[in-house]
């Protein structure tokens, strides 16, 4: 059986795994984005606090994904829980770092002008600072999503959802008839999902970032 015959014969299962993979990454990125922006908002005004949270989130990336998931299994068990925790932690650094950089890069004169016309700090943050910081924040989200696409495959080690299960099954049965087809199908599926997510982010950027800011 060649690769295309394998895909045609198992397309329903592959589509289910792809959906679960995309869903896990999307939901974890939503959580990581909310947490990352909140952390950035809370720390960008302080040099030491910004450096502290950036270093803390960067430290997570030094832990191999397989090791982190393995450490989480005794605490939260197998399945979705270790997957969600690990992916959220890995997705924080690009969002936190870019949120801090974006907020610090807002022209102070614009903030002063907003203060001068009586805007409160929450109003300045929501109407001036965050919209101007959105382009680097979106870039951080794109980078984090591409990272999580690959890391999510490791979640199959903890019985997590997604295309990693197809890859692991293939690796576990190397030498059998469809082992390479399984590995290739899972890998290509992740690549396609990553490209689709990135295209969606490009579209979001075009819809939400004014042309002048993009330029």
Automatic annotation (TrEMBL):
Name of this chain's protein: ABC transporter permease
Keywords: Membrane, Transmembrane, Transmembrane helix, Transport
Gene3D superfamilies xref list: MetI-like
TM regions (residue ranges): 24-44, 51-73, 148-171, 183-204
Superkingdom of the organism of origin: Bacteria
Subcellular location: Cell membrane; Membrane
InterPro entries reported for this sequence: ABC_transp_perm/SBD, MetI-like, MetI-like_sf
Organism: Streptomyces coeruleorubidus
Signal peptide limits: none
Family: Belongs to the binding-protein-dependent transport system permease family.
Lipid bilayer topology: Multi-pass membrane protein
Domain ABC transmembrane type-1: 18-201
């Amino acid at each position: 059986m060649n690769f295309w015959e394998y895909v045609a014969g198992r397309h329903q299962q592959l589509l289910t795994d792809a959906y679960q993979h995309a869903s896990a990454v999307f939901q974890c990125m939503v959580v990581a984005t909310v947490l990352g922006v909140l952390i950035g908002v809370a720390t960008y005004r302080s040099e030491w606090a910004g450096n502290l949270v950036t270093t803390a989130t960067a430290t997570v990336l030094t832990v191999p994904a397989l090791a982190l998931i393995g450490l989480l299994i005794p605490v939260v068990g197998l399945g979705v829980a270790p997957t969600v925790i690990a992916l959220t932690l890995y997705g924080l650094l690009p969002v936190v770092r870019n949120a801090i950089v974006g907020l610090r890069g807002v022209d102070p004169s614009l903030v002063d002008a907003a203060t001068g016309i009586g805007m409160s700090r929450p109003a300045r943050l929501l109407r001036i600072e965050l919209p101007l910081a959105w382009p680097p924040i979106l870039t951080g989200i794109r980078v984090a999503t591409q990272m999580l696409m690959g890391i999510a495959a490791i979640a199959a080690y903890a019985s997590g959802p997604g295309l990693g299960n197809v890859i692991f099954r293939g690796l576990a049965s190397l030498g059998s008839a469809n082992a390479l087809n399984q590995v290739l199908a899972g890998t290509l599926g992740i690549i396609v999902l990553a490209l689709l997510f990135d295209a969606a982010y490009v579209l979001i950027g075009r819809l939400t970032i004014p042309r002048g800011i993009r330029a």
